[in-house]
């Protein structure tokens, strides 16, 4: 979806890809699976090729998108290598407005990325297969360009009102824009590696994967500079597998914290993004973890660092988020199975964004538009 974050990540990756770094050779099976995916994407583009007027007559376009979805669904049913699948394609082909506005550009971009074995963004899972084939220097260039991008001032709304969806609210230009470009740049809500150590009220430590509802954890409020305690209301586990984490060393704590790069932490009583102070590494973690506390304390101590919690209601420029930082996220997770038991499991593709790229809900159901 063409929000500023997606445009930004495409530009950032294009800068890295233009440096001409040597590419690793490809195994035969991977080559065959990749080319099958490219053929599927090209077939979708061919099916939806404009035949009448600039965007095609509505009746023609509906027929084209129906055939395109059939083509993709058939591909998914028969493909053996499940790495070459993108759920976003279904959304792109789901309505005329989505296809004409961004879907065609998305499928074309994805097709070119796989044709050239290029990681062209950090949001689509399938292109992450090409992230390391150009070596460490490519990663360094990409990460440096991305850090420059997230420091840019945010774009101001260009229209007075935007209608996100018939089932949701209408926003006006008076709404506060996200304070930094990282709001758009986030892959998802992210958070902690499964082995990150959470400090309990009694000074003991437990890994994130062993934290459960009702446990009392150590907290910190940067406004009052007071350490306290709070009850865990819910543990949110997001499916990960292999993900990119910022690795923070804490000499005083004698610990290492692996955390997603844009999950705010407190250092020297200021909210910062981990990605601005340490490099990222790729690690295996079945889930990444975030926490909702009963009294909505703004942070809990993990790996020796105060890490922001869900619905923390922080007004700081770095810590603020209109969804993850407010009761809106609580309203969403309460609808998900497991909330009453204190643990829910979600996928990254459950995160719903409006046309400006801002998160407004978490839902397993695909939301369609006409």
What does this structure look like?
The protein is α+β, with helices and mostly antiparallel strands. It has two domains: 4-149, no CATH class; 189-362, Beta Complex (Endonuclease - Pi-scei, Chain A, domain 1). 29% of the residues lie in helices and 24% in strands. The protein contains eight helices and 15 strands. The protein has helices at residues 4-17, 28-47, 58-78, 88-92, 96-115, 135-149, 182-185, 327-333, and strands spanning 161-163, 170-172, 197-199, 205-207, 216-221, 226-250, 255-259, 265-267, 270-272, 280-293, 299-302, 305-308, 343-346, 351-353, 359-362. Strands 5, 6, 7, 10 and 13 form a five-stranded mixed beta sheet that branches. The protein has a two-stranded antiparallel sheet with strand order 1-2. Helix 1 (4-17) packs antiparallel against helix 6 (135-149), helix 2 packs antiparallel against helix 3 and helix 2 runs antiparallel to helix 5 (96-115). The protein starts with a helix and ends in an 8-residue tail after the last strand.
